[in-house]
Amino acid sequence: MAKLRILIIGGGGVGTMAAYALQTGGHADVTIVLRSNFAAVERDGFTIDSIQHGHDIKNWRPHRIVQSIPNATPEAPFDYILVATKNVPDVKPTVVDLISPALTRTHTSILLLQNGLNIERPLQAAFPTNPILSAVSLIGATETHPGIVRHDDTDDCKVGPFPLPGGNTPPAAWQADARRLVQAYNACGRVGWTLDLDVKATRWRKLLYNSSFNSVAAVTGLDTARMRMSEFVVDELVLPVMREVKAVARAAGVELGEGVEERVVRVDPTDTAFVPSMGQDAAKGNLMEVEVIVGEPVREARRLGVPVPTLETVYAMLKAVQLKAKESRGLWTAEFAEGAKYS
Amino acid sequence: MAKLRILIIGGGGVGTMAAYALQTGGHADVTIVLRSNFAAVERDGFTIDSIQHGHDIKNWRPHRIVQSIPNATPEAPFDYILVATKNVPDVKPTVVDLISPALTRTHTSILLLQNGLNIERPLQAAFPTNPILSAVSLIGATETHPGIVRHDDTDDCKVGPFPLPGGNTPPAAWQADARRLVQAYNACGRVGWTLDLDVKATRWRKLLYNSSFNSVAAVTGLDTARMRMSEFVVDELVLPVMREVKAVARAAGVELGEGVEERVVRVDPTDTAFVPSMGQDAAKGNLMEVEVIVGEPVREARRLGVPVPTLETVYAMLKAVQLKAKESRGLWTAEFAEGAKYS
After folding, report:
1. Which domains are present in chain B?
2. Residues 6+ apart with CB under 8 A from B88
3. Size of interface A-B (CB pairs under 8 A)
4. A219/B221 CB distance under 8 A
5. Which of A270, A273, A309 sits opposite B309 (nearest CB)?
6. Segment B246-297, tens digit of pLDDT
7. Is B313 in contact with A310 (Cβ distance < 8 A)?
8. What interface predicted TM-score (ipTM) does this complex get?
């Protein structure tokens, strides 16, 4: 069998560990697109400390390292594009913008290795003949310095085709695409991604954690251990958000089950001060995945007529924090002049 | 007429300007209790740049400057104690703790020159025979450095007796106490405090601004001009909070009137980036007046059965931010161990 040609966009912790598993499995040749860490990785390769692949991986490179999105070529189209960037649709370039040049219509499968709800929709609209796959990852992997990755929690990921708009079953061929990728991923023998034919439910389940803990961390600066110690943060913010998201999921046809919130509350350990990604982004003044993690559940709730008062307030707070990040990047300008509705 | 003996606790912008007006009016001798700025003021006096009293006031001192709360003496009891500190009842010492040593039962009138709701209640419980007066101030006055005060917005303040618990009219003698203080204050001829016999309503009206703009500034870090430019911050946070507080006020017997929210939204200028006090406190990691500005309206809403979903969420967020300020002061300890409800 010919090796799969795989393009990975995003060389942070998640993208790098995917590149490592796929490339070392021997069934794929990985091209990885790097931005801020390109120079470091070109010079020294990746340095990886992994609980599954080994603690002393040095000077490692996949098949090819590039600095910008490569153009698709008819003779060697990419079989898969794995998108492992942050998903911030309120800022250009969007995921559709990013992958367009590298994609071959009807051929390339797109795997979204990203958080959030309804992230497949713009891709299904833009590329209706390409399989769109979803990966819900629970890996713990962080790029601590450019090119240096610490992988400290199991690479546990569920992969399946996104349902088509309207909730229909995806074509059987798309399941095969997902299965083929999972096999190539697991070929290294050290990790176990799994095929998931109900990835929509899996995504809602992960959203319980992200929409609550991530949001509260971003607005308050607290880690999840302190949130739990305080008790009121869990009782008055985390659990109310989870219950609202669960109600939206139910209205969207996904039953997350009795007591799931209480289990999700206890996901993180209480012996370390872990700050979820959106909290880390907020602390650094970085852009956050507000729209896919909170905005989409809110819009879904409005569409379905489910009241989500806590989530609505959290969403507005996060957009306000995001506004500062946008302003510092020149993406929003404060006009100290008359003219606006409230000037 | 003998001069009034007045103790002012708190020598920030508000307390200093009160000391200046009362002392220079000639009808009062002011003792002021200073903490962080005691050494600077003892050495150089206050330096004041005031839009009403003069721009070049140097080396000014009231009758007496002290470093700790003085004890009451039978021969010269304080006629008034003006409390101009921040009001943070979730942290010791409380206002009751502070003023106890200096107060003479049945004699001293207590004036709370502070923000927030229900701040009189612990005082009425602790000192049932002392008149408790309320001052709702709109002054703009800031201590920019120790002992250096910029007074840049009119000293506009309404003073009246707090209604007794249960909403009864305060004794007529307490109105006279309020009037006498206002007269002493205005005797300098440069400022105009006014007597307010419906100070409860005035306090709710000021709460509209504080519970909304102050809270949103504390949680998001935005100034009020940017909140208004963004529009969504006003539409989705500021106005919803104001509408909820207005509904609680109505249930508490105070009708704030048609369109008051839209007027309060426009109180601050849009040509400068003004961050309300609680936002400044949050940015500096200081303790905030969360309980009197947001906690009390929430508890009032619960008592009266008024739903305040936005305010409830904002309150929980602020308590979480406050928790960090408490932890940094050793007032809360994160126990990375088992035992708590969510460990």
Report:
1. 4-197 (3.40.50.720), 200-328 (1.10.1040.10)
2. B287, B288, B289, B290, B291
3. 142
4. no
5. A309
6. 999 999 999 999 999 999 999 988 888 999 999 999 999 999 999 999 999 9
7. yes
8. 0.92
